[in-house]
Amino acid sequence: MMTEAQRYLFDLTGFLHLEGALEEKVLAKALDAAERYIETPAEDLPPDFGSRDGRIYDNGFAFDKSLERLVFQPSYWPIIKELTSGKPRFVRGSMLVNQPGGVVDAGSLHCAREAYGWQSTRYECRDGRIYCDDFVVFTYLTDVNPGDGGLVVVPGSHKCNFDRPDSVFDGGDLEDDAPPGTINVTPRAGDAVIISELLTHGTLRWKPTDRKRIVLVLRYAPQYSGGGPWTTDTLKARLSPETNELMALASFTEVKDVAQREVVTLTV
Ligand SMILES: O=C(O)CCC(=O)C(=O)O
């Protein structure tokens, strides 16, 4: 379950910044694996891995066990379970990389409601708990300092009832600065940011010329939702049984073994 403070803040703003979500050793191993993925020539990568634009690295979570374990990171595992009413599914995951001087990737504001319609995604509170059927955990492996760029959010927009007019937030086009009324979230390496996909968000241009931004993008939904299948036989064969179980679609009534555990450790 979420703490009182987490529940209050996530409900109020639509996102949660978890400082120090990863222990130092866990972070160091994950960063090392992420750098290995980035540095491996495309022709030497196993099936299911690669990057079409040098920015999104497919299946980043599955490249190494030190990354795969972050799907179940204890600091946010209880939050994943609460948001899905104890019926979690890990839908898919990638790794987002901004190279210094790399692809200019300022990204416009967007959210599930604007892209797919208000019917597409649910956010509700019942019995003192939050339910959210489409959310992302961004696990940061490198620092973002104020002024660097990166993630922008419109706090509270997960509950928005009106279309966003072009006259606000510079029409949604993000370049170098967060428009007034939006927030540029600047996590440190080892922090995690959880957002509802109903939260209007986007990306500022990555400005540092000497540092990358590396973020694991982990997408979750209730076990009867999220579409797919997103896995192939070769990907499934790489993953631990716990991850395959969490990625599986399941009925409304089934209770996954993995969902009953307070701490999940990958067995292989
Ligand atoms: O660049 C970021 O931090 C946000 C990425 C994003 O907008 C998304 O994954 O939908």
Query: What would the CATH topology be?
Result: Jelly Rolls
The H-and-E topology, N to C, reads as HEHEHHEEHEEEEEEEEHH
Low-confidence stretches: none
Percent helix: 10-25%
CATH class: Mainly Beta
Shape: globular
Give the total of domains.
1
Number of helices: 7
Q: What is the residue-averaged pLDDT?
A: 96
Could you give the count of β-strands? 12
Structural class: alpha+beta
Q: How does the major sheet shape up? A: 6 strands, antiparallel
Give the N-terminus to C-terminus distance in angstroms: 27 Å
CATH superfamily: q2cbj1_9rhob like domain
Q: For the largest sheet, list the strands in their spatial order.
A: 1-10-7-12-3-2
Level-2 CATH architecture: Sandwich
Which strand-content bin applies to the residues? 15-25%
At a glance:
This protein is α+β, with helices and mostly antiparallel strands and 268 residues long. The protein is built from 7 helices and 12 strands. The strands form 3 sheets. The protein has a 6-stranded antiparallel beta sheet. A 4-stranded antiparallel beta sheet has the order 4-11-8-9. It has a two-stranded antiparallel ribbon with strand order 5-6.
Descriptive keywords:
268 residues, alpha+beta, 6-stranded antiparallel β-sheet, 4-stranded antiparallel β-sheet, globular, binds 2-oxoglutaric acid
Write the layout of secondary structure elements.
Blueprint: H1 4-13, E1 15-18, H2 24-39, E2 56-57, H3 65-68, H4 77-83, E3 88-98, E4 107-110, H5 112-116, E5 123-126, E6 129-132, E7 135-140, E8 150-153, E9 183-184, E10 192-196, E11 201-204, E12 213-222, H6 233-238, H7 241-247
Antiparallel strand pairs: 1-10, 2-3, 3-12, 4-11, 5-6, 7-10, 7-12, 8-9, 8-11
This protein binds 2-oxoglutaric acid.
